[in-house]
Amino acid sequence: MLLRSGIIVAFFTLLSRFFGLAREFFIAATFGTSAIADCVNVAFKFPNLFRRIFGEGALSAVFIPMFSEKLVNSQGEAKNFSGKIFTLLMITLITLTIIVEILMPYIVLLIAPGFYLENEKFELAVILCRITTPYLIFVSITALFGGMLNSVKKFAAFAFVPIIMNVSVIVVTYYLQENYTAHYSIAYSLIVAGVLQVAFMVFCLYKSGLGFPIIFAPNEKEVTQLVKNMGPATLSSGAQQLNLFISGAIASFLPGAVSILSYADRLYQLPLALIGITFGTILLPELSRIYKKRNYNEANYLQNKALQIALLLSVPSMVGLFALSKPIIHLIYERGKFLPEDTILTAEALAAFSLGLPAFVIAKILTPIYYANLDTKTPLRITLYSLVINTILNIALMIPFGHVGIAIGASIAAWINAWLLNKYAKQYGDFKVTYETKLFAFKVIFGSFCMLVFISSIMYYFGDLFYSNKFSIKSATLLGTITFGIAIFLAISYHLKLHIVLLKKHDPSF
Fold first, then answer.
1. Nearest-5° angle of CA 351, CA 444, CA 433?
2. Residue pair 254/397 in contact by the 8 Å Cβ criterion
3. Which of 117, 282, 326, 509 has the smallest C-beta neighbourhood within 10 Å, fewest atoms?
4. How far apart are CA 83 and CA 89, in angstroms?
5. What range defines the domain where residue 446 resides?
6. CA torsion sign, 106 to 187 to 405 to 272?
């Protein structure tokens, strides 16, 4: 079940990330790393920060276990509960959006303080953020509906909705440019995308028989319990996003750094989303069910199996992104207003970000342990520790290393966050990373090292082909290197019998 659900989510997540990459390609070619590009990227990241932390993060983490529990008792009870949460959520989101719109100049000062040094850049960022902020309403409602569908093991719909957003941004911006400038067009396109996403999710919800009544009952026990747990979960579920938020705020003091880090972030988000978000999505409903039955043996087995699969995918991805960062950035982004010097700077950031990829993935897998047990306070404390460490490292490393120091700081903080999550997870069913999983990790690292040696040799002897004037030659060189690198890793993995470990069935004495 885990593998089948994972394949469904991974397929649509991968598809959505490719469309997201196409969106970033469109933005990079249109704006490069200019001041306008920085403003556009901040305007995009602001509502999406709320989406990842509040909507897909805290709301899903708290709502799904409660909704799943009610589904076991009665579908009617579950529908009434979702109606109460939807009504309260709509009122909260509309109120929050109005407040944010009024306070936007102060918020931009908080999220991009470096912009304040340039008056025109600051004012443009305020205007664009005001245009994109209502997207918060649509994307949070989409997350609520996605949580309901995920609870009944219908994962495809919610995994598909980012594709709607990415396609809408490109298409709507392209047509709106006839009447508006490109940066205003792309901001308005996000609102159009939000409307389409909600419409699609409403259709899927009613098709699945999960339609609900509108009920206003803010004082009922179940509603207040959810609201009470939402506070800590809002911070704890977004460790990575809050770290990136802080990194972006610090980067705003460096010209072009916001855009550079954003373009690099999009590329390493591809394997992160495919692995981490996939498992984070399917683990929470499943773990909620298992912990409800107090079947700790099965929960530990499921978590270790997820860690093994995640390590098998994330460690070689880290090596690949680190070693091939420059040719990847060159091939994807270098055209239009995105110049060769932008390629070098963005590749440096991508290489630094990639070092934290396995840690980000591990955190996505370990965090559901806490939420499945309705514990939002422990991850909150861990998040606060990592945020403080991330901020200190960002500032300290930015001084000697510039934007690269910010990316390195974020990666170090990610590893500390993952270590703390693992350390305190043992309080739930005595969770532990088994010896088998640790040995599996060492074998994956060895295979990845062999892959690194191969890639480095190709870069040394055939480096010029990666930057050929002919697109066909450089794309074939990069694709061929990646393909043969993966083949070497898989061959070594097969020789080390990693497939036998993955296919090993659950031992009740585990």
1. 105
2. no
3. 509
4. 10
5. 434-504
6. positive
